[in-house]
Amino acid sequence: MVRSVPVGIWVDQDLRARFPDLRAAQEQAIRRQVDTQAQVVSLRVREDVPAPALRANCAINAAFAKVWSVEFNEPGWCLPYVVDGSAAGGEALLGILDGFLATPASDRRVIQAWADHLGFGHWLKWIQHSP
Amino acid sequence: MNSNAVDSFTISTEGFDVSLLPEGARVVGSPEFQSAVSRFFESQFLEMGVNGQVVVSPETIRVTWAQSGADPIEAGIEKLQRGQLKEGCQWLELLRARFPDSEKLLQGLGIGLSELGELDRAIECLERLVELAPGNHHGRVALGVALGRHGDWIAAERQLRQVVEQVPDDVWGQKNLGGILFRQGRLSEAVAPLEKAVQLAPKDGHAWLVLGETLLALNEIGRARGVLQKARTLTKGQLQDKAVALLDQTLDALFTRDADGLRPEVVDGLVWALRVLAGMGDSKARQQLVLRAALLGQSGIDLLAPEPVHSLDGYAGGPLTGFQVGCLIHAGVQGLSPGTKTGLDWEAEYDRAVERSKAV
């Protein structure tokens, strides 16, 4: 998720700005994603996932929900994370995202910055792309 | 008519819209005026990509340009499409003397003037258009819109009805006919054309918004909420703000306000929720209940549905209505994180509910 969500947010925002005809379909997909991701905070999932991974996951999901709750005026999307205590973690990730220019050149650095913030930056290993 | 064959026109200096010129150059015929008019046309030539010349005397403006592939009418319409309404209208108006019967020019100019609020001139233009081309439905809808903006409801309705009778699939005609009927307070009659418009153009957020506003005015609260939620997701900016405000009004329509501006039913509901949460004792269990309610709310609950259809693990009192779930969400979230926006706009009622709960 740390690899796909920050860059995915930029891509979705770019799509939304440049292709108004796709907005309805995009919104449907985002609603589904917000809904699915929120299930992670349910008690059943909590019991099966190690706490550090769950904390990181919830913070990423909270960041995603926050971005789109503002865009679609759906404050309810953030509430599970407020109740769960991970909303602040999401805000922190969005603060990091805001510090980068939304360009492909920033992709790797923003992913690394999110991973570092979440405490598992050392898990990532970047390798040279070879076509 | 081939517009490329034309290479010049002459207008009187009095006919030029001086508001397009810098403030110091608006005295017609003055040297500053003559220079500014020249610069105006030179910039138009530059945009059109043609070589042109303008000769300004104190009485007349003569514009000449080399024949090329550039279409001068299209250049004016492109300005309108870019949002340069005044410049586009000025350009088309100047060309009108040379192309008095151009449908494209009359339609562009009429719509542009209507958007600028120059309604008399817009109506004259569009009436000429439909006289020349009775089958131009787009132009006829534009005429109906301009007449409606002018407050001439009867004439507006006549034009719009003519379009939807001849072309029932004309979305713009259906939407504007509904809008004209709504603005006259003929709410029941407005519903059918607006429903037809959203059926034809399901992504037209503005049409959904007008339909929702109409249903709300008809007091069809349940239907209005569904339609306005759709409008909210399909619009942005001011239109989205309006959809949100109308959604709030649907709640106001159900929950009347007291002398203090509060909704007593909401206060009662929140008092009930505070009691339920306080009665749980264990803070972990309380948090889990609020979390389950929030998850339920995230996928959408109908606050107005009267049936208790929602079951929440951890709540032993049986199925809950959407309104009760909303109360648990709002009270629970405020308890955990005071001041958090829940989207329910129940802040004042919550404060009163807390006061009442403490008093008990």
Low-confidence stretches of chain A: none
Instruction: Kindly report the spatial arrangement of strands forming the biggest sheet of chain B.
Output: 1-3-2
Strand content of chain A: under 5%
Q: Mind describing the biggest β-sheet of chain B?
A: 3 strands, antiparallel
Counting DSSP H or I runs of 4 or more residues, the number of helices of chain A is 7
Tell me the structural class of chain B: mainly alpha
From the alpha-carbon coordinates, what is the Rg of chain B to the nearest angstrom? 29 Å
- The value of Rg of chain A in angstroms is 15 Å
Order of helices and strands of chain B: EHEEHHHHHHHHHHHHHHH
Mean pLDDT of chain A: 89
Distance between the termini of chain B: 84 Å
Percent of sequence in beta strands of chain B: under 5%
In short:
The complex is a heterodimer of chains A (131) and B (360). With 131 residues, chain A is mostly helical. Chain A is built from 7 helices and no strands.
